[in-house]
Amino acid sequence: MTRAVELAELRWFHIEQLLPIEDELFGEERWSAAMFWNELAGGHHYLVALDDDRVLGYAGLAFAPPDEAWIQNIGVRKDAQRRGIGRHLLEALLAEAEARGARQVLLEVAVDNAPAQKLYAGYGFEAVGVRRGYYQPSNTDALVMMRDHKD
């Protein structure tokens, strides 16, 4: 039986544990420590999924007033995938977006990342556009997906 992970607010001391996950998942397109520091300094909402003090995953949400939120990223260590951690993080971000009054939640996902697109579609996200060459240096297109909050 898998032990439940704890979700906690991302703190500066977690950032070093995010970097190997970023490298493993995104290679040359990984985020740097400075990028995560900037997200925290900007007051964005970030969570980590912890097993004791070990970071298994993370996710971030930025707000665009008056009523829009953007999922910045969701990442789960490859050896911790398929345990519902990404889904748990996504649900927590959506709950935060709703609590803060976001009417729409948007995200970008690589056009070749079918598993992530399927996950997002299961939560009501629909494709609304494409950003050509968004991911660099691979020049991979990003699919823009949006979820409207239903009253």
> N- to C-terminal separation?
37 Å
Q: Which residues sit in consecutive blocks of at least 5 with pLDDT less than 50?
A: none
Helicity, in percent?
25-40%
The number of strands is 7
Number of domains: 1
The CATH superfamily is Gcn5-related N-acetyltransferase (GNAT)
Report the principal-axis shape. globular
Number of helical segments? 4
Order of helices and strands: EHHEEEHEHEE
InterPro entries: AcTrfase_RimI/Ard1, Acyl_CoA_acyltransferase, Bact_Acetyltransf, GNAT_dom
Protein name: [Ribosomal protein bS18]-alanine N-acetyltransferase
Keywords: Acyltransferase, Cytoplasm, Ribonucleoprotein, Ribosomal protein, Transferase
Enzyme class: transferase
3D architecture notes:
InterPro entries: AcTrfase_RimI/Ard1, Acyl_CoA_acyltransferase, Bact_Acetyltransf, GNAT_dom. It is found in: Cytoplasm. Its EC number is 2.3.1.266. It catalyses: N-terminal L-alanyl-[ribosomal protein bS18] + acetyl-CoA = N-terminal N(alpha)-acetyl-L-alanyl-[ribosomal protein bS18] + CoA + H(+). Acetylates the N-terminal alanine of ribosomal protein bS18. With 151 residues, the protein is of the alpha+beta class. It has a single domain (6-148), classed as Gcn5-related N-acetyltransferase (GNAT) (Aminopeptidase), CATH 3.40.630.30. It is built from four helices and seven strands; from the N terminus they run βααβββαβαββ. The chain has a seven-stranded mixed β-sheet, sandwiched between helices. The longest helix is centred in the middle third of the chain and has 15 residues, at 85-99. It is globular, with a radius of gyration of 15 Å. The model has no long low-confidence stretch (mean pLDDT 93).
